[in-house]
Structure formats: structure tokens, C-alpha cells
């Protein structure tokens, strides 16, 4: 949602608040008028006691009774509208909080992505991704697996809350993790509350993709205590994180490999020139 949309939401909220205030004031006026008319009826009934003894009700009294019924009906309609406006205002207030949270998360992701692309050190990139998953996603137990081109399988390169050696290696296309790596699709378990940790079947599996090429996956097995479920913004964060993380990992690996090759070549040159 853009800034203009947010302003529109706030503007509508203020508009409804004004309607609510006017409705409340009008209701108070109707209640006062209601009391005044009831008092007037009592006066008329006392004045016409001789006529009412024979069973006749003065016309003015009947009219006042009818007017009171009409006013009470109008009051109920206004109260119903006020309750509706209160509910709408609450919805706007909740949405405003969600927008604030979403903006904060996106701002944090922007800062984190800047950090990701500010280094070409492979281990440092993995550490930054780990911090993003903990702080922005709210995961407690997870792992990062990358594709080994020689074996064509996913191998763990980093983990949190789980010993890395316990995270299984996965063949591309085999099992849930391998299938997500093959298709490049995100996976989220339907019932997060009833999930029991299964290293072969994570609650979340996010492929790390550069365009359509998958270079690895992020698998999540447990959320932090304060994180009871995934919000809509989390799915956007996962998608953005996957793209930035994949690019940063790929760049750092290329840089590391080129550094190793350069070091090897320099070693041969030194041997030849001695």
C-alpha cells in the first residue's frame, strides 16, 4: 500500500469519526426530547383525567405517544449506525497498525538487503541472512542449504537452533525439500500450531532463486515464542529475502572461487619465477 492509500485510509477514518460524533450528539438530543415528551404526556394525562375516566384518550396524548415511538425508532437506527461506525473505526485502527508494522518490516529489510550486498565474504553473508531470518521472520530453528553442483544435492551450510550436522543432505527432487528446490515454489505448512519438528518436512521451505535458477533453500522448523503464526507481510518478506539472499550468496561464492583461483595461479607463477 502506497503513501496515498495510507492517507486515504486515515482520511476515511477521520470522516467516520466525525459522523460518529454527530450521531452521538443527535442521539443525546433525541433522548432529551423523549424525556420532555414523556413529561408532557404526564401533564396532559393529569389535565384530562376527567375525560380518560370514561375511556377516552385525548388526541394530543395519542399524538405524543406516536411521536415518542417514532423518536425511539430513529434513536435505535442511529445507535445501530454508531455501532457500525465504531466497528469500522476499529477496523481502520487495526489496519493502520498493520501498515505501520509492514512499513517497519520493509524498512528493516531494505537495511538488511543493503548489508547483504555490502560484503563479498561468504561466511559474513550467511551470518547476515541468519540475523534477518531471526529478527525479521521470527524463526528460532532453521537451516540454509545450498546446491552442490558436483553431487546435485542440497547440503547445509548454516543453521540456527539445530546442529548443522543433523540437518539432512537432500537430493534435488527427493522429498518435500528436494521437490521445492526442483519446482522453485514456496512451501508453508497449513497448521503451524500442530506442527512437530521433522527435519525432512519443515514448516517452511523457501527456495533461493536467481530468476528461475535455484541455488539453495531456507528451511524453518520452529518460530519464536512471540511469533504464533505468519502474517500476510511475512510472505512478501520471504519472497524479497529469497531473491536478495540468493544474489548475495551467489556473488560471494563467485568472489571466493575467483580469489582461490587467483591465489593458485599466483602460486604457480611464484614457483616458475624462482
Summarize this, please?
The protein is α+β, with helices and mostly antiparallel strands and 274 residues long. It has helices at 3-47, 49-52, 59-116, 122-137, 175-183, 232-272; strands at residues 139-148, 153-160, 170-171, 187-188, 204-210, 213-223. It is built from six helices and six strands, in the order H-H-H-H-E-E-E-H-E-E-E-H.
Describe, in plain words, how this protein is organized in 3D.
With 274 residues, the chain is α+β, with helices and mostly antiparallel strands. It has two domains: 3-113; 122-262, GAF domain (Beta-Lactamase, 2-Layer Sandwich). 63% of the residues lie in helices and 15% in strands. The protein has helices at 3-47, 49-52, 59-116, 122-137, 175-183, 232-272; strands at 139-148, 153-160, 170-171, 187-188, 204-210, 213-223. A six-stranded antiparallel β-sheet has the order 3-2-1-6-5-4, with helices on both faces.
Sheet with most strands: 6 strands, antiparallel
Q: How much of the residues is beta strand, in percent?
A: 5-15%
The CATH superfamily of the largest domain bears the name GAF domain
Given the C-alpha coordinates, what overall shape results? rod-shaped
Strand order of the largest sheet: 3-2-1-6-5-4
Radius of gyration: 34 Å
Distance between the termini: 65 Å
Name the helicity range.
55-70%
Number of strands: 6
CATH architecture of the largest domain: 2-Layer Sandwich
* Overall SS class: alpha+beta
The name CATH uses for the topology of the largest domain is: Beta-Lactamase
Which segments are poorly predicted (pLDDT under 50) over 5 or more consecutive residues?
A: none
User: Can you tell me the number of structural domains?
Assistant: 2
Number of separate helices: 6
- CATH first level of the largest domain: Alpha Beta
